[in-house]
Structures are given as structure tokens and as C-alpha cells.
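Archive entry: two folds, one per protein. Generate the first.
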Amino acid sequence: QVQLVESGGGSVQAGGSLRLSCAASRRTFSRSTMGWFRQAPGKEREFVAAISYYATRTSYADSVKGRFTISGDNAENTVYLQMNSLKPEDTAVYYCAKDRGDFSWGGSDQSKYVYWGQGTQVTVSS
């Protein structure tokens, strides 16, 4: 069983930055797609960004392109989400997720992610 633990959330003013971290309980990234998703109050959970094994491929939601960057550190079993130029509409609970680890590309398809973290709150004030 893989456990994912997010950290780095908090409150920031619009235009500010935060870096989220997602630590896995054991070495697992080498075959996996790792993703970040978010859920705002009253809204469905939505895709934010994903990164493939060996970081050969990344994908971003249109709403965060150019502002957010996903990266991974296999040695530390950690995935990061650097969030710059934050907007109030970025306010949400952010979740880290991992797919089955079979070298397939999870991308933005939530159904392909098997393991989920507990989430970390990001609040952006105007």
C-alpha cells in the first residue's frame, strides 16, 4: 500500500507563491504517473498537473499553464507543485495522486489514479 502525504499549503495573497510537496511512503515513482488535483468548495475535483515516470512528460490544466510547475525527485520519493502568480480562483484543497505504476500515462483522467493523499488547503486572498 502506498501512502501519499501532501504539505506546503497555506494562505497567501494574490500574486504570491506556494510550493506543495507530496511524499510517498516508499519508492514508487519510477513507473508511475503522479498528478495534482484540486477541489474548490461546491465544485467537482479537477485536474491541475501530472508528471510521468522519469519526468519525460508533463501536462497542465489550461487554467494553470505558465504559472504552475510540477516536478519530481525520485531519490526523495517526492513530487512538487510550484505555484506562482496565485489567483483567488486557485483557492481549493489540493490532492496528490498516483496511478497504478504500470508505465501508462495517467494524465488528467482521475479514474487512472489509484492512490490519493489527504489533501492540503490553499487559500488565495484578493
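Generate the second and append.
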Amino acid sequence: QVQLVESGGGLVVAGGSLRLSCAASGRTFSMYAMAWFRQTPHNEREFVGGISWRGGRTDYADSVKGRFTISRDDGKNTMYLQMNSLKSEDAAVYYCASKRVTNPLAVFTERIEYEYWGRGTQVTVSS
């Protein structure tokens, strides 16, 4: 089992920045591909960005490319999402997810592929 806990959400003015963290515990963090998803009321949970187990490969949703950056620190069992130039449409509950992998360079973008999820952290953007 893997436990994931998100933190760092809050209220930010449009154009501002936030950094979310996802702390993992339970199993070997370094054998897992990770990702961030987000969800607003009445909408599907959507992919934001993902990162591979090794090699630092990343993939992002078009809506956040150039503004959001995912990174991970395996020594701290933590993944990060740096969000810059925030827009009102970025407001959502952000979830981190993990998936045990054998391919160290694989990045996964589909919600159904992920095995473990955190409870989410709320991001609110005021205009």
C-alpha cells in the first residue's frame, strides 16, 4: 500500500504562484510513476501533469504547459507541482496519484491507470 498526502493548496490571486507537495509513504517511492490531477464540481477528474520514475520525463496537459512544473525528490518521497501564472480556471481540488511501474521512463496520463490517490488539496484563484 502507498499513502499519499497533498499539501500546499490555498487562496491565490490570479497571476500568482503556488507549490503543491505530495508526500508518499508505505512502499518504495522510487518505483512509482506519479501524476497530478484536478477536479472541479460536476466535472471529471482531469490530468494535469505526470512524471516518470527515473529520468525526469514529464508530460503536461495543454492547458498548463509553460506554467506548471512537476518535480520529485525520491530522497524525501515527495513530488511537487509548481504552479505559476495561475488563472481562475486553475481553481480545483488537486490530487496526486501513483502507479507502480517497471518502465522507468514511462509517464501515464489516464486516471484509470493510477492505483493510489491522495485526498486532495484545494486551490482557489481569485480574480
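Annotation attached to the second fold: The chain has a mean pLDDT of 95. DSSP finds no helices and eleven strands in the chain.
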